[in-house]
Design goal:
Number of domains: 1
Order of helices and strands: HHHHHEEHHHHHHHHEEHHH
Radius of gyration: 22 Å
Shape: globular
Strand content: under 5%
Strand order of the largest sheet: 1-2
Length: 436
Amino acid sequence: MSLALPQPLRPPASPVWAAVAVLALLALPQNPDAEGGAGPADAVSALVVVLCVVRLLRQRRRPLSRTAAVVLGMPVAGVALAALHAASPGAGISGLGRYLQIFVLVPGAVLLLIRDRRDARLLAWALVALALWQGAVGVHQYVTGTGASYQGEDVRAVGTFGPQDVMGMATVVSLGLVAAVGLALGHSEVRQRTAAGVCAMALLLPLAVSFSRGAWIATAVTCAVQLVLAGVRRALKVAAAVVAAGVVLVGGFGVGSAMLQERISSITRVTDAPDQSVTDRYTMWAAAVDMWREHPLTGVGLKGFPDHRDAHASLALSSGSDTEGAGAAFRRQPLLSPHNMYLLVLGEQGLLGLLALAGGWLAVLVCALRRLLRTRRQGAPALDCALVAVGLLLWQLVDFVYADIGGPSTVLTAVCLGLASWWALAAPTGQGAGPR
């Protein structure tokens, strides 16, 4: 007769590791000669959706609450209608698939794969780790002069994304910094808060040398809101630490170079003396608005902006932007989008599409803020998850004023929307205001 004690069953691995795998693939080098678009991370994101469907079928449970299903499904109607008005069936189908991937399917899958706040923290730390890796590559590019071309010098930090996705590293580092700030401001153990604070400070340097004005603005606004939501006292302490870090960066590492100072000062000159990139952006914004005026309800159709751009843009628009460096040869990239997600949707999908898409984002933000405030009042340990979720969503909504979807880093938007949707629509209510 055996006296061996029964071994305890190991808990199954968290399904959220599938979403972490998507982030891990974003750390791989991109093909410098690629035209952009979907990449390996997008392929894995499709597998994540399939995995989620298989789990739901095996568990035979209701996947989403009625509120979550309505909010996440709102963009479908507008996108499907715009796909019918596309210039060609191929453009309509590919555009429909991309929008559903980024704003419906992958966010919904991530929402369902997160079981509790431990999973949410795991995904947040994976985002911080990705940002640290891309930031380290970017700083090396800046120091060694092997980055993308900027004002005639190969110093712009682009990480592994290359100049074809010049905003990729800035997006990753910004979202990682926002996640780190949320983790640092929560009610978790001191070790985690300290580590997150150190990571947030470390990410300031790569964010600076990305030379991305839109990412700077979105990150500053988001972190300020996170600090206010966490409490005034803590906000003052963190603000003092940020000022000290800024002094170290400028004085100790010499980050305050002439190019960086000029880039910062150009933010205040966007109306008085805009550079060509700002002029192009204003021109494309006006073109998108003009498209909407001609087709106010349904827009010109998915992927219709490039075809209608020249008919609505003024002569101030340049023929494209120059990209080179970071392992890629010189290339003239055409301007195929207005670099404003709201105006892109308005021009291609009309007012119906914008209300459906932005309305869903606003609903998620309102639900997330309400749950965050309730969590803070109760002193629940889920405050860090709340600050991360609200911060990631808010950063994306602010950044959409200066950017739109496109490139390998776009799938990161879907993962962040999924994490925010989990907190807003799936975390249980009651004492603790969040999953265990």
